[in-house]
């Protein structure tokens, strides 16, 4: 998706935007099981490594290595672990915020599916430390209406950073 070919209605744009805002709210408030309900059963969730390469207009997204390459089942396993005592990476719990902007929506050949491009900024702090971790970039989603509810069927995350400076990759974007 490079540009929006034909804009969708304001009502549809609001519905899909609200899905992304609801997702951010769930993640920021540790409501991970509720977040899983926003995902389709056949979900593909991928964040490849961004490479630094020379040249203008060259592809700098790796095709052979990912930070994440998940399914709904693997994300469910990660979420369920957060509710156990062995999730030491979240003890004490981190404070996090997901900011979503520049939401662009494009029709597909399926009237129940839309391509959605958005920018994200993720910020996280932990404990009493003054350091703030951040990750930012672009997301390419496929959203689908399932039983009258919008859900995320595919997410392709393109981080802007070639070097991820977060302490771990336990977050969901």
UniProtKB/TrEMBL annotation:
Keyword terms of this UniProt record: Dioxygenase, Oxidoreductase
The keyword S-adenosyl-L-methionine is annotated on this UniProt entry: no
GO molecular function, one term: 3-phenylpropionate dioxygenase activity
CDD domains associated with the record: ring_hydroxylating_dioxygenases_beta
DNA damage as UniProt keyword: no
Enzyme Commission designation: 1.14.12.19
Coiled-coil blocks: none
Pfam families named in the record: Ring_hydroxyl_B (PF00866)
First-tier enzyme category under EC: oxidoreductase
An individual GO BP term: 3-phenylpropionate catabolic process
Domain of life of the organism encoding this protein: Bacteria
InterPro entries from the UniProt entry: NTF2-like_dom_sf (IPR032710), Rng_hydr_dOase-bsu (IPR000391)
PANTHER family: 3-PHENYLPROPIONATE_CINNAMIC ACID DIOXYGENASE SUBUNIT BETA (PTHR41534:SF2), BLR3401 PROTEIN (PTHR41534)
Family of this protein: Belongs to the bacterial ring-hydroxylating dioxygenase beta subunit family.
Identification of the protein by name: 3-phenylpropionate/cinnamic acid dioxygenase subunit beta
Source organism (scientific name): Niallia endozanthoxylica
